[in-house]
Amino acid sequence: MSSDLQEDNLVEEFGYKPAYERVFKSIGSMSLTLAMASPMLGVFLQSPIQLTYGGYWGLTWGWVIPAVAFFPWALATAELASSMPVNGTSYWWVAALAPPNLSRPLSFVTGITNLMYAITSVASFAWAMSQTLITVIGIYSGWEATTGASLGISIAVCVLWVAMACMRMQDSNTLYICNGKPKQDVIMFMSLNVGVLATATIVLITTAIFIIGMPASHAARGLPFTSATNVFGSFDNFSDWDIGVAAPYTFLSAAWIITGWNAPATIAEETHGARKVVPRSIVTVYSAMAIMGFFVLLILAFCINDLEAAVSDPSGVPAYTLVMDRWGLKLGFTFLMIVAINTMVGGAAVIFMLSCQTAAFARDGGLLWNDKLTYIWPYSKMPIFSSILVSGGGAALLFLAFSPIASSIIYSLAVMTLNFTYALPMVFRIFNGGRWIPGPWHYGKMSIPIHAWSILSIAYITILECFPPSASWTASTFNYNWVVLIGAVILAWVMWIFKGSKLYRGVDQEALRAWRAHHPSSNTANDDRKFGTPILTGVEPVSMATMRASSSSSTTKHPKPTVN
């Protein structure tokens, strides 16, 4: 039996009819993340935080420590994705692992929180791209954009992403790889040409150019490099927080930049050999982003000679100023525009992953107009209305840019809700009550420690993200992240009480029980079993035919995406 057929059979065992075409392989799924989350551009934008709160130490150890400490997040998510390779990811894993009496409410709250993250992250990303373009153009030409201009560019970015989401999925696979094999004649050929500028390959090339070219041009100008002693040992705090807060505050950049690595899990149903390819892609992408980011930061640290000037850079992004100063205004501007435009085009991957998550939640009855949101457009093989929902919702939120406080709350919501949806499935992986069935990618006895460390580190960074940027805060500068997170969870629970409890069906528990009975947890560590009594004791194994019959009989409860 082919791996794709096995994966489709697994989707059927979970109670769904396979509706997506499996077009992504390892390179394709990894490229989706690199295309939308260029580590170099992220470092450029977030390095002021590291410089302000830690100086050279912030650029080096302020990256290495969190990159290593948060790596178990990727490991834990990879194990969950290998066990249950469905597009729903966090809400679905919660539904499968939580106690049956809590499965529906907790998975609904997770799904709604995930939708909040989807819409706010689209708005945040689009706004970040517009500000990147405006800042680069401003340094080059002196142009100062109004809030209205920033809003217009951000909405245009959202429109671009929706248009790209209308592409055929196999075309987008090539678009993000730059080395796919032609499948669709003219359109595929055009995708390959567009991919020259808008792919993960460009991310790798531009990063290599910076890592090699920046020190070369720095040396060519006869400028001294910062000593290794200072780069790795000098801590300079330009904030009013003491070292106990300032040093950990530098960790936030890594937490925000090394992101999107969970994207392969959201397209598991479109991936060849998902149970192995998806977890491998998650771990590889996290590692690649962490390593690439470290080398970019290392170059910045050795080439920034004046820390105070960098911290007080008028553009707010000293890395941009450094590039244009060392490479010349025109060459530096061209390089930064290529990086920015490439990331903007690659940002359409955000719509791909978030629309698949949203459609999965609608498939279980979690939203309104579920039939529309689960509809798979035959041309693109994508849930087109879910794409419109997340991009349109993000575009609508952009109008809050006219209110600095409101926009800050929205962008905080994107960060805080993501942490919540990361952690909850890991909690129920530990306290699984015998409902855990490991996939081919699992860690045996190390599984529970990995998930436990992930939960603790997520809690740590979430608390850190609630600290205001200044110790002498006021009502206008206070960090309301914790209020936003609590408000989001309360709102999700209110929606459950008034709507979700009546409309949301949740995952097919009968199908899950049949799946567990057919796939005994023989390779689960013994340590797992003390966290709950297995619920399958005495359940007779069922045949594949019986499970498919059960899956078919649940069709009325679980409407499937349709292709017309």
From TrEMBL:
Keywords assigned: Membrane, Transmembrane, Transmembrane helix, Transport
InterPro entries registered for this protein in UniProt: AA/rel_permease1
Gene Ontology molecular function: any one: transmembrane transporter activity
Record's bilayer topology term: Multi-pass membrane protein
Subcellular location: Membrane
UniProt key word Cell division: no
Membrane-crossing residue ranges in chain numbering: 27-49, 55-75, 115-143, 149-167, 187-212, 243-263, 283-307, 327-354, 382-403, 409-431, 452-473, 479-498
Superkingdom classification of source: Eukaryota
PANTHER family: AMINO-ACID PERMEASE BAT1 (PTHR45649), GABA-SPECIFIC PERMEASE (PTHR45649:SF6)
Name assigned to this protein: Amino acid transporter
Lineage: Eukaryota, Fungi, Dikarya, Ascomycota, Pezizomycotina
